Amino acid sequence: MEVHPALLLFLLSCLATTSYAHNVHLSALNQSLIVSTTTAPNKVLKIGLDQVTITWSYNDTLPRSADTNYTTVEVKLCYAPVSQSGRDDRKTDDSLDNDKTCPFDITDEPYKRSNNSYVWTIPSDIPTATYFVRVYVINAKNHEIAYGQSTNSVKASNLFQIEGVADDQVQASASQPMLGSFFGYGVNDTTSLTLCLRDQGLALVNPWSSGFCNQEKCMKYVSTGYGVTFSSLQRSLVVTASTTNNQVLKAGEDNITVTWGLNQTFPAGTDSAYKTVKVKLCYAPISQKDRSWRKTVDEMKKDKTCQHKIVSRPYSASNNSFSWTILRDVPSATYFVRAYAFNADGHEVAFGQSTNAQKATNLIEVQAITGRHVSLDIASVCFSAFSVVALAGFFYMEKSKGKASK
């Protein structure tokens, strides 16, 4: 069967294009990190109360030059096989784009070869299951290139159990989203209320029934961490970004140096509940107009202003600085930088930003990559030249066949 040259060129072009897609596989990553956790065997940890201390470092038995392109690390909580059985929503896939083993973010940090440690308080929305911890290494292009984990290759050792949210409680929160607002608290996370009721030895019951539990206690529990609004946060952090006015930064090339710290005009003890800080790149109003997917919403869970993660660090009142290379997938837009302070429960309690309240000063212009690279340009030229030659050859062959038939 003859293959038409045009079809052949089309297929080759498709292969050349798809080769640039992000399609990282776990099996292709170098296991170059050593990861450990402080949990003891057979200890059942409780959400909202217990902590896990995670440490990681580069494996010194490997060549020291192998980590030269390591930029950041992402620490994640992962399901063990015993908690994945029969659960497609937790299924392991070698392609990291499709993998559902590690859905819970713990922290992300700048890469350091050694002396890395993070104390994590288990959030209140973690399901009951058996887990391990995995740390991914990310390069400047925001691709995973290495990893390490706190268990062995078959994920059977050094596991830990968490007593958390049961499946029926998660379903209850989805089927009864307005239970909290019935009491006038504006809370729409029934999972929290269910946990509170469980702590009192009661089940989730009809709020109209006389057997409903202590409303004040449960609503106080819920209101301390759920339904957080931006307007309720204290602007107690001072944030700066080292960009020059009117300077257009290029994604994948230019850097932003971000500094943050506690505003020293606030009284001592203001930051006593601050445990971690997450720094994010946020869309300015001019780049949000007519774009609902970037819309600012006062409720933090629904807000889409700050979609690009820069760094997460344990809280320190001063001397905080991070140089961030703008990732290649950051779109062209006008931005500012915002830092959120989180408490031990993983809830936002304060913030600071590099612009004013109207988000109109000290803004950052980013120009996205065009998608063209030298290698792609060379490939395009080669394919174009090949197509011209192939087309000429095709017509020559057809003409020769026509003459021969005569």
From TrEMBL:
<feature type="signal peptide">
    <location>
        <begin position="1"/>
        <end position="21"/>
    </location>
</feature>
<dbReference type="Pfam" id="PF16974">
    <property type="entry name" value="NAR2"/>
</dbReference>
<keyword id="KW-0732">Signal</keyword>
<feature type="transmembrane region" description="Helical">
    <location>
        <begin position="378"/>
        <end position="397"/>
    </location>
</feature>
<keyword id="KW-0812">Transmembrane</keyword>
<keyword id="KW-1133">Transmembrane helix</keyword>
<keyword id="KW-0472">Membrane</keyword>
<dbReference type="GO" id="GO:0015112">
    <property type="term" value="F:nitrate transmembrane transporter activity"/>
</dbReference>
<dbReference type="GO" id="GO:0005886">
    <property type="term" value="C:plasma membrane"/>
</dbReference>
<dbReference type="InterPro" id="IPR016605">
    <property type="entry name" value="Transptr_NO3_Nar2"/>
</dbReference>
<dbReference type="GO" id="GO:0010167">
    <property type="term" value="P:response to nitrate"/>
</dbReference>
<protein>
    <recommendedName>
        <fullName>High-affinity nitrate transporter</fullName>
    </recommendedName>
</protein>
